[in-house]
Design brief:
By secondary structure, the protein is α+β, with helices and mostly antiparallel strands. The chain has one domain. 12% of the residues lie in helices and 24% in strands. Strands 3, 4, 5, 6, 10, 11 and 12 form a 7-stranded antiparallel β-sheet that branches. A 5-stranded antiparallel β-sheet has the order 1-2-9-8-7, with no helix packed on it. Strand 5 and strand 6 form a beta hairpin.
Length: 480
């Protein structure tokens, strides 16, 4: 979760694993959309001497569909290269890294960004040799990490902005509870194996980083007609977005020198639009196939959405709690199909207009005519906030709670007026609060691009023992 280790094959290839995709109107540049795609799940902060990095043999892509066809109309492609300055040392850095060109920064990554507009066939390299920041090693090696990260924010032609590098994983989820037979802690007392109810435990709160590719794109460059819509009902305002990673079809391993070579066409190995679909709605034996397929062909997976397994199992895991959900088992879940596979128009759900056409496809859909909300709800549209998930996805959106409540039928009355959700549905939350400020989830988000917060550093995470509590080490002949 959201898409960390979501399929057997990609779980063995973390450098290509697209963990999360976000898309939202930039809060400080409301004429732009920010798109974030994260890779390399569950990076531990103290990961030396070989710190995490993007794959030189992976092609990373961000796709935009803006004509209602669920196929790419615009593609941004990212390809990385790695350089080692001092080949005689094992060290990632040989002294403090004070800039991206500091000679002490020994192992560096740069990248090329290419934009393809499929309607015209135009393919243009926007920039080459853009620098990534180092990983956040610690106060001795990266004493001013925010400055290094800011130096890695690059401007592209057409008022676009890009960043690629390590970040703090903005996703939040109680993974331990979710995969322990859906035993969400705030409602444990109602589980088939009841326990003491408590608040959720964020598995990503401490020392978990990812690598982020971030783009900030003017709305006029995303819409099919170059407009900046102000009316959410206008078709041009609704676009679909997803991220993906591909590898060459063939890899030839080197012998003693460790140098490998790749050849053949690029083959997709990971993709992500909406959060949690592959995790919760695709059978295990088909998950690798999902990652290799295109959104426009998702009709072959739609039965997992129409008849969700978790929706079938929850009434048994919470006896007597979700009997109304049990009563509709075997009935197609058209509400979920609309929410996840086609988008919704405001005639179905008030304040939600992200319908992109009848093609069944997993895309993160956003209406670019909906401005950021003055009063934000972590439950997005479910909480009365039209600027939140499933209208795009912000960093603060509690997509786990939204997704589970949707499975329980929270949106179904809009599609079936005879259905009333079980009274317990609003209480089914993962129980991880979003504080507006302070070191917690809030420190994982920034007020400016790329918005996703600074990565945890390996020295300070977990926090070192306080100086006055540290044990004294006595060495003969040495004075501390």
């Amino acid at each position: 979760m959201s898409s960390h280790r979501e399929a057997p094959e990609i779980s063995q290839d973390p450098v290509a694993d697209n963990t999360d995709t976000y898309a939202f109107i930039s809060p400080d540049r409301t004429d732009t959309v920010t798109i974030l795609t994260n890779y390399i799940p569950s990076e531990t902060a103290a990961a030396g001497p070989n710190f995490y990095e993007f794959g030189n043999d992976v092609r990373y892509s961000i796709y935009i569909s803006n004509r209602g066809t669920s196929v790419p109309d615009i593609t941004y492609t990212f390809e990385f290269a790695t350089e080692v300055l001092d080949k005689t040392t094992f060290m990632y850095n040989t002294a403090r890294i004070r800039s991206l060109t500091d000679p002490a920064f020994n192992r560096r990554q740069t990248y090329t960004v290419t934009k393809t507009v499929h309607q015209s066939g135009e393919r243009k390299v926007l920039a080459r040799g853009l620098r990534c920041p180092p990983c956040n090693i610690g106060p001795h090696s990266t004493p001013n990490y925010p400055a290094l990260a800011q130096a890695a924010v690059h401007e592209l032609p057409g008022d676009e902005v890009v960043f690629a590098g390590q970040r703090n994983d903005g996703f939040f989820a109680d993974l331990g509870a979710a995969f322990d037979l859906a035993d969400l802690r705030p409602v444990q007392a109602f589980h088939v194996s009841p326990m003491l109810a408590t608040v959720g435990v964020d598995a990503f709160k401490n020392a978990i980083n990812v690598h982020t590719i971030a783009l900030q794109i003017p709305i006029r460059s995303l819409t099919c007609d170059g407009s900046v819509p102000k009316d959410p009902a206008v078709g041009a305002a609704r676009i679909g977005i997803w991220g993906a990673a591909s590898r060459r079809k063939m890899r030839l391993r080197g012998d003693h020198d460790g140098q490998h070579s790749e050849s053949g066409p690029w083959v997709q190995v990971s993709r992500l639009g909406n959060p949690l679909i592959n995790e919760l709605l695709v059978p295990m034996v088909r998950k690798d196939g999902w990652n290799a397929s295109q959104p426009s062909g998702d009709s072959e997976f739609v039965d997992g959405v129409r008849f969700p397994e978790l929706g079938r199992r929850l009434p048994d895991l919470y006896p007597g709690v979700f009997e109304r959900l049990r009563a509709i088992q075997g009935t197609p879940r058209d509400d979920l199909v609309a929410l996840l596979m086609t988008g919704v128009n405001p005639r179905q759900i008030p304040n939600l207009s992200n319908y992109t056409g009848p093609t069944l496809s997993d895309m993160l859909r956003i209406n670019v005519a909906v401005p950021p909300s003055a009063v934000r709800s972590d439950l997005g549209v479910l909480g009365g906030d039209p600027a939140g998930y499933p209208n795009g996805r912000r960093l603060t959106d509690d997509v786990v709670t939204i997704f589970v409540q949707a499975l329980l039928g929270a949106f179904r009355p809009y599609f079936d007026r005879s259905f009333t959700p079980d009274v317990a549905v609003p209480a089914v939350i993962q129980g991880i609060p979003t504080p507006p400020t302070g070191r917690s989830r809030a420190d994982r988000f920034l007020p400016r691009f790329p918005y996703i917060g600074e990565p945890y550093d390996g020295f300070a995470t977990p926090a070192p023992v306080a100086a006055n509590a540290a044990p004294r080490l006595d060495v003969p002949g040495v004075t501390p």
